[in-house]
Every structure is written in structure tokens, then in C-alpha cells.
Write a structure and sequence with these properties.
The protein is mainly α. The protein contains nine helices and no strands.
Length: 167
Amino acid sequence: MTDNENTALYAFRKYGDTVLRTAYACTGSIQEAEDITQDVFLKLHSSQTEFANDEHMKAWLLRAAINLGRNFRKSFRFSRTSSIDDENAPQIASPVDDPDGIRDMIRTLPQKYSEVIFLYYYEGYNIREISGFLGKSENTVSSLLQRGRKKLRMELEKEDNYGSERI
């Protein structure tokens, strides 16, 4: 095995689930998240990138997953089509447990908010780390997190009001 094969295999074993969850947060589709995860590790395998440490590698992987997720959301396939499998198949368990449907509500937020909320609450990163992943200032990430929380709170209150009217 070459060094790149060893690095990619090591990274996949250590961070594969994290990359998958991040890709799922960006796309909302387990199938697309799996494709993006595969693409991220293929990029790692073919790149000559040297990492200072595991955190640097993890940041590179998450940045790649977020970028590919953004590209997917901008694609024609995302905006103009839907899969027959998605509409007719039973729901597949997501990589993130979501008994109350909050993850689905987060996914409906604009991507700039959903990414930050996912990385902060589901992956446990702090604002400084998220700013590094997204290439944004800490103040911007903090503002996005605050605005995202506000939008999510409004959606939760709207659903609570709707649910109480139906009863």
C-alpha cells in the first residue's frame, strides 16, 4: 500500500461516520451523502496533501464534504428532480437520530444556517473551529448560529401553534 492508501484508509476508519453525517446535513439524502462521502475519500486518496495532525485532516475532510454538499444543492438534479425511490420507499433511518423531527426542521433552514447549527450542536464544534471549516470569520459564524437558532425557534413555534389548532 502507498502512503496515500494508508492515509485514506486511516481517515475513513476514523472520520468516515463524521463525513457521512456532515454530507447528510448538507444534502438531506442518505444516498447523496454516501456518494459525497465516497468522493471525499477518493479526493483524499488522489491528493498529495500533507496534514500537520489529525485535526487538520478532519478539517480538510469536513471542508470537502461541505463543499460537495453545496455543489449538490446548487445542481440541477437537486433543484429540479426527485427520486422515485425517495417518494415511494419507506423512510431510511438517518445517520443522526431525530425522534422529534428537529433535524428535518434544521435541514429546511437556509444552508448557511443549517450547516452552522449542525456542526455546533450535532458534531460539537466550537465557533472558532466552525469558522475554520467554513472559511468565515468567528463573528460571522456566531451571527449565523444566532440567526439560525431564531429561525428554528420560529419554525418550532409555528408547528406548535399549527398542532394545537388541529386538536
